[in-house]
Amino acid sequence: MHRLQNLGRNPRKTNGISNPHTPLYIGRFAPSPTGPLHLGSLFTALASYLDARANRGQWLLRIDDLDTPRNRKGAADSILSTLENFGLHWDGAVDFQNRHLEFYQHELEKLRQKDALYACTCSRKTLSDYPQTGIYPGLCRTTPPSEQIPSALRVKTGHTLIAFDDRLQGKLTRNLATQDGDFIVKRKDGIFAYPFSVVVDDYRQGVTAIVRGFDLFYETPKQIFLQHQLNYPQPSYLHIPVIVDTHGQKLSKQTFAKPVTAENKRMVIFELLHLLGQKPPEALKTLPVSQQLEWACTNWTPSALTGQQQLSQYHHQELPITT
Ligand code: GLU
Ligand code: ZN
User: Fold this and answer.
1) Which of 42, 86, 109, 220 has the fewest CB within 10 Å, making it most exposed?
2) Which residues pair with 118 in a beta bridge?
3) Which atom of ligand 1 is nearest to the CA of 216?
């Protein structure tokens, strides 16, 4: 771990010249420090780790800590130690979003200069009168707010179709104007919003391949739109299915998924590989985690999950996770 120094803005370039020795694949895992790592996030971490290692790429770790009201004390440390315990070693220094506030603002100014932003003072209550929840009706775009009250910043979307090819889920085409509306890039409380920060972060870190949960699949067109607006290269995307509980709910800190502990790590990795459709041989069950991961990198076949959006962990032996 910490094998490489802080990678800076574009790890593939030194003084503007491409370095042929640095890998072309740069992946990342970007948990939010809202609680300990749970099974669903370990599953995502494992998939993105395996995809990076199987492609001889780098695997970066970023702590998505911009949304300060949701951060929990000690969560980042706990996530890092869980990843280490499970042998998921990352490259370079851990990146923290909160250390890059000036850079987000700098990139936001580029959007402002293109006249792509406008202030929005609409309250949740105002918006609840509109039938299409989640699609902003453009009120402040047509009638700019007159009062100087705290406002969010929205980006103007257009009727252009945004399409991308997911490595597992196939092609998604979306009309942002009718399916998402003008979306928020900076919140009323001054916090940079997820679709904007993630795009700036991945650019800043030179990320070329994104592997993450299917819950973010429909968020992707907005992110590609911002990449176009900011002239950033587009990474590849692979959205893996999310693990759901017996009620069909995504496992998350909000649904109180049990945190993963180091107990019986071999069993956990074995079962996660099984859930990832990798058909691990029985003999792998009792091998040390380092050997399990080595096998999994060599045999990584993400296409085993093609088109799958949800997985129930109860299809398989229940995982021996203790709290
Ligand atoms: N930080 C985001 C989350 O915890 C993930 C960001 C991403 O993978 O795009 O859900
Ligand atoms: Zn508004």
Assistant:
1) 109
2) 154
3) 9
Q: What is the number of domains present in the chain? A: 1
Which ligand is closest to the CA of 153, given by its number?
2
pLDDT, residue 322, reads 43
34 CA: nearest ligand 1 atom? 4
- Tell whether ligand 1 has an atom less than 6 A from the beta carbon of residue 35: no
Q: 170-186, pLDDT tens digit by residue?
A: 999 999 999 999 999 99
Kindly report, residue by residue over 13-41, the tens digit of the pLDDT: 434 444 555 559 999 999 999 999 988 99
Model-level pTM? 0.89
Separation CA 124–CA 9 (nearest Å): 37
Q: Containing domain of residue 11, as a range? A: 3-98+194-312
Residue 114 lies in a domain: no
Dist CA 227 CA 244 (whole Å): 31
In a domain, 131, yes or no: no
Per the CB < 8 A criterion, the answer to whether 41 and 250 are in contact is no
